[in-house]
Each structure stands twice: as structure tokens, then as C-alpha cells.
Amino acid sequence: MEMRSLFEPRAIAVIGASANPGKIGYRIVENVVRSGYRGGVFPINPRGGEILGLRVYPALAEVEGEVDVAVIAIPAEGVIDAVEACGAHGVKHLVVITSGFSEVGNLEAERRIVRLAREHGMRVLGPNIFGIYSAAGSLDATFGPGGIEPGSVAIVTQSGALGIAMIGKTATESVGLSALVSVGNKADIDEADLIEYLASDDRTRAVLMYIEGVKDGDRLQGILADVTRRKPVVVIKAGRSKRGSMAAASHTGSLAGADEVFDSVMRQSGVLRAESVQEGFSWVRYLASAPLPPGDETVIVTNGGGIGVMATDACEKYGVVLYDDQPVLAETFSGAMPDFGSSKNPVDLTGQATAEDYERALDAVLAEDRMHAAIALYCETALFDTSRFADLLREVYARYRERKPIVFSLFGGGEIEAVIRDLRGEGIPVFGDVYEAVSALGALYRARRRQRARAEPPEAVDLPIAEIRRVLDAARADGRTFLLAPEAAQVAAHLGLDVPRSTLARNLDETVRAAGEIGYPVAMKIVSKDIVHKSDAGGVALDLENEDEVVDAYQAILRSARAHVPDAVIGGVEVAEMVRPGVETIVGARQDPSFGPVVMFGLGGVYVEVMKDVAFRAAPVGRATASEMISDLRSYPILLGVRGESRKDIDAIADVVVKLSHLIDRCREIADIEINPLVVYDRGRGTRTVDMRILIKHPKGVS
Ligand code: COA
Q1: 191 and 183 in contact (C-beta within 8 Å)?
Q2: CA dist., res. 533 & res. 331, Å (int)
Q3: Close Cβ partners of 220 (under 8 Å, ≥ 6 residues apart)
Q4: Measuring from each residue's beta carbon to the nearest atom of ligand 1, which residues come in under 6 Å?
């Protein structure tokens, strides 16, 4: 595999190695040496001499033998020459630490580096990074604080500062790392390349990504969708808020994609999105150590009613299912329950419980085949002998750690705090906060569901693409970046969508005749390539009941269109059937700048405008995913039928979503397509495509 030599190089050069301990070029050599790297290490510096006992080469050309990785830590002006030298030497991977490229607007220099590297068959990590750590290679080629413990969590981060801080955090939290990679400006190697490698790396049990902006999201989505079926991947994305997005854009020079799209596509790919660095860290730590639960049934054991109730709330929030077969619970805990206790889940041993009661109850849950995971809560009480508590938890954890997931949450004073610290240091999943404990278990359950869910098989959707292309090409040949209403209607007809009957009328006579043929009431719209916003130009009239109204509307529409856009070339008016009212929805699809083709669904009006209640997915999607998009909406109950209303035709909506998703995937020249509204009727009665708008890319590829 191509990335293997980046993570497990046979020899490494450090260009810009320095004997000055204050310099990055010194720190890198120091970390490489201290991490126990067993390959060849070649510091490069024109001064020559020695660094940490290693011979320094004045130039890479003087190194004999192959070098797989060259770490470049010299000022930006010198980087391109260094890349050339690496290419000449047959280096495979460049790790470019140096800043001063696209993140400060210097895009051209960054592109030159990648072009030149690619010409020599090299791949580039960075620039603008702190380096790479790889447990597989026993290699710390970063300028971080050193002392990284090898383990099973891999971290891929776009933020350098955060990555360096994570090294410190992993040390205090005793989290072992299988890899830590700084991707910086992602000029060449990106998350997708790295995740692909990490998926095949046996050491890595969970991956944490910190992302600010996505570049080749289409590919990333495909790789993540596959990898998350084998290993949990957690993402922390900055740029959720509007201000946050701006900061992220100026930070690494890559634009953060619209958060709604990112969020939906990550979920679709089975990635767990954490709200904060703390949460993400806590999840991967747990995911990397806990076994997948054998089933869905979780039991809470507590010695305090209050925290038991809080844990119950948290279970609901994080999708953890509580076991509730009462007779089995009563029987299971019959020997472990003090007076006044309750064997209902949460199993409340009460403040009277002794350490022995607590241990017996935990054993009872974890030994019972019908119960699959335990949440163990403890509130410090006077009766409980806390001194033996740490040992008790150690023993219970050791007995079941391979078989069933457990999370502990302890609450109390100084002694309890010390127990938490000690046990965490030993890698036992002990949390101070109930919500944090349950959120980690919830992440594990979501990872399990992902790994068990079968991938939706690709659906063959038969669309007359050649015919649709002819319509698009005609519009492009006409120099337009949008389709006229009759053209859009043709595309809709090719898609097999139910479009209201309509006719293009060129004069008043034709208009009156068309209205008669279609049947009253009718709607009328101006047709002109110079008028995109027809309503604003007074170019639309609705609910025309008879011939007189049609005549009046015809004149009014032409008059106001001319007044609005004096030079407009008017092709006539579109006369269309008025559509029966139903639930108004929106189906859209577009080429997303980060993720490529995506499809969207939402309810119309306030739901989309005020509540932003929409679902996105990377396109194309099959029926199952389309149905999931629909049921994901907060306003879904409206489609299910509320307050005596009957259920709407959800299958028919899914059908339209599937078709549009395939169209946007196969016709990349379509920039944006939106049906607004798609009117939905009761179950079995279908949908109607009232207005479909299609924007196409400029014929010459400039938009
Ligand atoms: N080949 C080999 N060595 C070279 C060289 C070349 N072409 N050009 C310069 N050097 C040597 C220098 O002589 C110096 O060695 P010395 O200490 O013996 O004099 C060493 O390389 C470093 O060069 P120097 O000019 O001192 O640069 P620096 O150490 O001040 O800065 C960077 C270099 C890469 C650290 C700096 O340009 C930079 O980009 N800093 C930001 C890094 C960063 O934050 N990255 C993102 C983190 S998330």
C-alpha cells in the first residue's frame, strides 16, 4: 500500500536539522531518535557536523542508500529546491513542516510543490504541519513534546496546535496512540488517504479526526462509509457556527463546507460526530478499549436514586436501550438487594448498600446473558467503605472487560476524585459525570449498529440520460446557465415525474385555447430567458377561473414584465393546470463544493426557511436512504399524518429523491436542481412536481 512507507519508512531524512535546541529542526531529530526509530536517520544541514551523535549530511545527494521519508523544516523560500533534491534522490514521501503557503494565500507555491513532487512520484503531507507519529514505525517525526505512548487510537488533525496539545492530553489521560498525523493544508495527502491506511493497520482500533474544511469530500465519504463498518471513526469539526466557519476559512485556507451537508454526510458514512474535543477524545478512548456489546440490553446499577434518573435521561438522549424484563431483573438481583432497594432498571441499591452489595449486583448483571452492558454509578455515602472501592472496580472490570462493555461514573469528594484519577490512569473507563459515561457507551452502541448494518446495495435507476442531456445541451448552446420552464418540464417528464399539464402559448389566442384545453382553473407564467425571478417581475398569475380572467392576466403579465425588464425577449406565456393543494415539500440536488453531488429533502415554507429542517445525503441514494432522509426530519410527523390528517405518500417522495440523486450524480453539468414545491398527497395518490428549476454549469466550465 502506498501510504505504508509514510508510516513505516525504512530511512528518514530531516532537511533543516539543526544543532540549536531552540529550533524545530532540532526537535524533530530529537523526537525521531528518542522514539526508538530503528531505520536510518539522516539529518541534512549545509553546516554538516553532528546532532545528538548523528552525522549531519551537507546535502541529501550525499546520503548513500534509499530514503523513504524526507521531513522538510526549512524556510518557505528553500522548499521547492529541497523538493527537487528529494525527487532526484528517490524519496517517496515529503513531510513539509514549513508554513507560509495556501494558509496565507500563497497557493501557487503550494501547487508547485505538489506538481514537482508528483512528477517524481512523491506524495506530500502538509505543508504547514507539526509532523507525523506512527506506532507501526516506532517513529515520532513531530516537533511535539515527545514521550507518546503507543496504543490503539489514531488521530488525524487539521489543526497543528490542537494536535500538539493532544500529545500532552494523551499522556495525562494514558491514552495510547497508534498514529498521530497533522494534515495542515492538505495540498496532496488528505484524510481519505490516511484513513484508508489506518483501516488496514491492526494496531488502530478507533480513529479521531479533527476537520476544518473538506476538499475531496466525494472520495472521503466513500472511504469512510466503508471503513466505519470495520472501525469506529469519530469526527470533531470546527466551523459549525457562522463565525466559526469564517475563522476556519482564514485558518488553513480551505473553506469549511456548509455544516448541514457535512453533518448529514458524516452520519450517512457511519462517522460519529462529537460536539467537543473533550467528547471526541472520551469516545475514542472508550471505543478503542471496550468490546462491542453482544446485544442492546443495558442495565444501570446505582446506589443513588438521583444519578440513576439522570443516567436514564442520558440513555434516552444517547440511544442506549435499558433492559426492562422485570421478573428477570427481580430474580437476578434477589441475592444482592438491600432492604428498600429496587430491582427495576435503574437498579437502585440505595445509600444503604455496602461494597459487597455493589459488587454482587454488578456481577449479577455482567454474568447474565440477557444483559449486555452495564452502567455502574456510585455516589459517595457514609456507609460505604471507599478505601476498598478502587480494588473492587478493578476486579469487576478485569473479570468482564473482554466480554461486556462497562462504564463507571463516580461522584464524591477528594477520595473519590483520587479513585477516578487512579483508575483512569490504568485505562479503566471511569467518568466523573453521568452524561459523559453514557455518551461514551452510546457512541459504542452506534458503532456497533454501524458495523452490523448491511450496506445498502447500489440501486440501478434507469434514467434516459441521453435525452435529458439533449435538453441541457440545447440550453448551453444558447449560452444559458439555467433551463427555461418548458425545458425543465421536459427534464421532469423524462424523469417520469408527475408534472402538471402545461403549454407554451405565443399570443393571446393560443393562450385562451390552451387554457380551454387544459381546463380551468389555470396558472400563467411569463417565459423569458431574461427574467429569472418571474414572480418579482409580476410575471405570474394563479387561479384563473375563466376566459375573461385569462385575457386580463395575459395583458397584465406582459405589461409588468416589460416594465420590469424593458429589453426582455419574451417567448410567450406558459399556461398550466392549477394543482390541488397538498403538503408542500422541497427536493433539491446540487454539486456541493466539498462533497460533490448531494441530494436534499425538506418540507416547504417555514420548515425549510425558519427551522432549516432539511436532510442531506451524498448522492446517489437508494430507497432505504431516501426513506431515512424523510424520517430524519423533525417535521416528519406531518407526513405521517397528525391531528386526523391521513398519512402522506412517503414512498412517492422517496421515489423522487432517488431519481434526483441519480440525475445529479450522472449529469455533473447540472449545478443545482430544485423541485419547489413537490406537492404530496395522501398515501397512494402520489406527488406533483409543480415547479422545477435547473441551473447548469457554464458551457466553458466557468461558473
Ligand atoms: N537544507 C538543509 N538545511 C537548511 C537549508 C537547506 N536547504 N536551508 C536552511 N537550512 C538550515 C538552516 O541553516 C538552519 O540550521 P542552523 O540552525 O544550523 O542554522 C535550519 O535549516 C533551519 O532553518 P532556519 O532558517 O533557522 O529556519 P527556522 O528553524 O527558523 O524556521 C521553519 C524553519 C520551517 C520552522 C519555519 O520556516 C516555519 O515554517 N515555521 C512554522 C512551522 C509550523 O508552525 N508548522 C505548522 C505547525 S502545525
Answers
A1: yes
A2: 70
A3: 190, 191, 192, 195, 214
A4: 15-16, 18-20, 23-25, 44-47, 73-75, 78, 82, 97-100, 128-130, 160, 182
Indicate the top mutation candidate among 24, 181, 183 to test ligand 1's pocket, ranked by most ligand atoms within 8 A of CB: 24
Is residue 658 a contact partner of residue 622, using CB atoms and an 8 Å limit?
yes
Question: If you average pLDDT over every residue of the chain, what do you get?
Answer: 92
Question: Residue 233 has what pLDDT?
Answer: 98
User: Cα of 74 to ligand 1 centre, how many Å?
Assistant: 3
Residue 258 pLDDT level (bands cut at 50, 70, 90): low
- Kindly give the pairing relationship between strand 206-211 and strand 177-182: unpaired
Residue 310 has pLDDT above 90, yes or no: yes
Which cell goes with 421? Answer: 484519577
pLDDT interval class at 341 (50, 70, 90):
confident
Give residue 25 CA to ligand 1 midpoint distance, Å. 6
Q: Among residues 444, 562, 577, which one has the least CA distance to residue 499?
A: 577
What do you get for the CA distance between the two ends of the chain, in Å?
Answer: 38
At residue 217, what are phi and psi to the nearest 5 degrees?
-65, -30
Residue 565's alpha-carbon distances to 368, 533, 575, 695, in angstroms, are: 77, 11, 21, 21
Amino acid at 572: G
- What average pLDDT does the segment 187-191 reach? 97
51-58 — which CB contacts under 8 Å span 24+ positions?
Answer: 51/17, 51/18, 51/19, 51/26, 54/29, 56/17, 56/19, 57/13
Ligand 1 centroid to residue 561 C-alpha, Å = 65
Backbone angles phi and psi of 180, in degrees to 5: -145, 115
Give the Cα separation of 489 and 491 in Å (integer): 5
Q: Which of 212, 236, 233 is nearest to 221 (CA)?
A: 233
Phi, psi for 4 (deg, rounded to 5): -55, -45
Atom number, ligand 1, closest to the C-alpha of residue 100 = 39
**Residues, the chain, total?**
703
**What is the helix (H) or strand (E) element at residue 41, kind and residue range?**
strand 40-44
For residues 512 and 547, the answer to whether their CB atoms sit within 8 Å is yes
DSSP one-letter code for 104: G
Give, using CA atoms, the residue closest to atom 5 of ligand 1.
16
Task: Take residue 375 and report the three cell numbers written for it.
Answer: 452502567
Range of 136-150, 601-615, 684-698 with top mean pLDDT: 136-150
Instruction: pLDDT band for 320, please (50, 70, 90 cuts).
Output: very high
92, 69 Cβ separation under 8 angstroms: yes
* Mutation probe of ligand 1 site: the residue of 23, 67, 86, 94 with most atoms within 8 A of C-beta: 23
Q: Are 499 and 483 in contact, with CB atoms under 8 Å apart?
A: no
Element (H, E) at 396: helix 389-400
Cell of 354: 455496602
Ligand 1 mean position to 105 CA, how many Å?
20
